[in-house]
Write a structure and sequence with these properties.
The structure is a single chain. The longest helix is centred in the last third of the chain and has 34 residues. The strands form ten sheets. Strands 5, 6, 10, 11, 12, 26, 27 and 28 form an eight-stranded antiparallel sheet that branches. A five-stranded mixed sheet has the order 20-21-22-13-25, with no helix packed on it. Strands 15-16-17-18-19 form a five-stranded antiparallel sheet, with no helix packed on it. It is built from three helices and 34 strands. The protein starts with a helix and ends with a helix.
Length: 433
């Protein structure tokens, strides 16, 4: 009976507009919630098979979803660990149980932004209990090969272990000029000293001293030098020696012609490296390759260290934490050194709307969202990672209030249908009287 279908359609209209009102209420209530994604309602008509003699109202049904792909505006804050994605993509996070759970069993969540802070254990978390995840870097700041289609290589970001940091020296580069006149018969034979500070495993500073002694011939020029290497960590004894001969030909003047190492040092002419064994471990010293212009040279100029380099860092404590737009979380130490601790990837899925809504502005993967992929920030389809920033709610109060008026009118109209059908049924009942 068409009048009954009218009643059903009116009741369904009341129901779906009640659902729309609930979504609007949620949006307005979360207008000030950072990272909140606006809830949207989609109405679709239901059509019944019609007969030519009558019409039956099918009614309406409703689908609700979060517009997760819509990014809110970013606001600047005073905290370096306030993080947001500037564009498409979400940050990987986990809940409290995931901090101590193996990666394969961890609950992986995604969120657009978070006001993170270190808890008592040093883990970066939000007040709502979301813990930020990232790929850990090695002592050189490299991430290496990581799995990008799952969170198996992600770890909760912990700053406690990085409070103090020291990296031992493993490479030294010597870019110096030795005076050619010192190897002539008129030379005095006085050695030239080059002390270089290096760092051991615990960040303690030690000194590696290179003593360059020219070979003075009876006549002419020898172009030869003896280099002795001393380490303050082992005492006064030499830990290695080098015999270097320089070329004075027109094609290769001033360059190393040949070199030989002994007494604990070895020289590889293919790489120009001298290998030493120090108390904290092996150290490679670059002096140059035969015939090449880099490394140690001999010209008619004063003794001059022009480009002496070394790696490693002394012991230092963290002064501040910064996150750049590529997602690298770096610690700045009071010694002036900067060290990369983690890389924060940006997660993406083919269907953002298909993500499963969880609490605290976080989302989980579902069958409708598609497969996860973890991108480097500012690569592929995803945006960058913004430190000192939070994402505002995507709620537009003006639009919500307009929708609220429309919903109220629609609800009243559907209520009028129910009231009208009730009056008509009452008239039908009165026919029996």
């Amino acid at each position: 009976m068409s009048i009954s279908s009218s009643l059903n359609a009116g009741v369904m209209g009341l129901s779906v507009n009640g659902t729309r009102l609930a979504a609007i209420s949620d949006n307005i209530a979360n207008a000030g919630t950072n990272g909140y994604k606006r809830s949207q309602v989609d109405f679709s008509s239901m059509v019944l098979q019609q007969r030519s003699s009558s019409y039956s109202a099918g009614g309406v049904r409703v689908e609700t979803y979060k517009d997760i792909g819509n990014s809110g505006a970013l606001i600047s804050t005073g905290s370096s660990t306030d993080v947001a994605v500037s564009g498409r993509g979400l940050l990987p996070v986990t809940d409290a149980s995931g901090v101590s759970t193996p990666a394969a069993e961890r609950s992986l969540r995604l969120t657009p932004t978070g006001a993170f802070f270190p808890d008592k254990d040093g883990n970066l978390r939000t007040q709502s209990g979301l813990f930020l995840l990232g790929w850990p870097a090695d002592s050189s700041g490299n991430i290496g090969n990581v799995v990008r289609n799952s969170g198996v290589d992600l770890e909760p970001i912990n700053l406690a272990s990085a409070q103090f940091s020291a990296t031992p020296t493993s490479k030294i580069g010597l870019g110096i000029n030795l005076p050619a006149g010192a190897t002539r018969s008129t030379g005095t034979g006085e050695p030239y000293m080059l002390p270089i500070e290096y760092y051991d495993n615990i960040g303690r500073g030690e000194t590696l001293t290179f003593q360059f002694t020219p070979t003075v011939p009876g006549s002419g020029a020898s172009n030869q030098w003896t280099v002795e290497i001393f380490d303050s960590a082992t005492g006064a004894a030499s830990i290695g020696e080098l015999d270097i001969t320089f070329s004075d030909s027109a094609s290769g003047s001033g360059r190393i012609l040949s070199a030989a190492a002994s007494n604990g040092a070895t020289y590889d002419p293919a790489t120009g490296m001298v290998s030493l064994t120090l108390p904290h471990g092996p150290v490679e010293v670059f002096i140059g390759q035969p015939g090449e212009s880099t490394g140690i040279s001999q010209f008619a100029a004063p003794f001059a260290p022009t480009a002496v380099t070394k790696d490693g860092t002394p012991i230092g404590s963290v002064q501040s934490i910064e996150i750049d737009d590529r997602g690298y979380l770096q610690a700045l130490y009071n010694t002036g050194f900067r060290r990369t601790l983690y890389q924060i990837p940006v997660a993406d899925v083919p269907n953002m709307i298909g993500l499963r809504e969880l609490d605290a502005q976080s989302y989980g993967l579902s069958g409708q969202s598609g497969n996860l992929y973890l991108w480097d920030a500012n690569n592929g389809p995803v945006g960058g990672v913004a430190g000192y920033s939070l994402m505002e709610s995507t709620t537009d109060i003006a639009a919500e209030l307009t929708d609220l008026i429309e919903t109220q009118r629609a609800y009243s109209s559907n209520a009028k249908i129910v009231q009208t059908v009730d009056d008509m049924l009452q008239e039908t009942t009165n026919l029996k009287r």
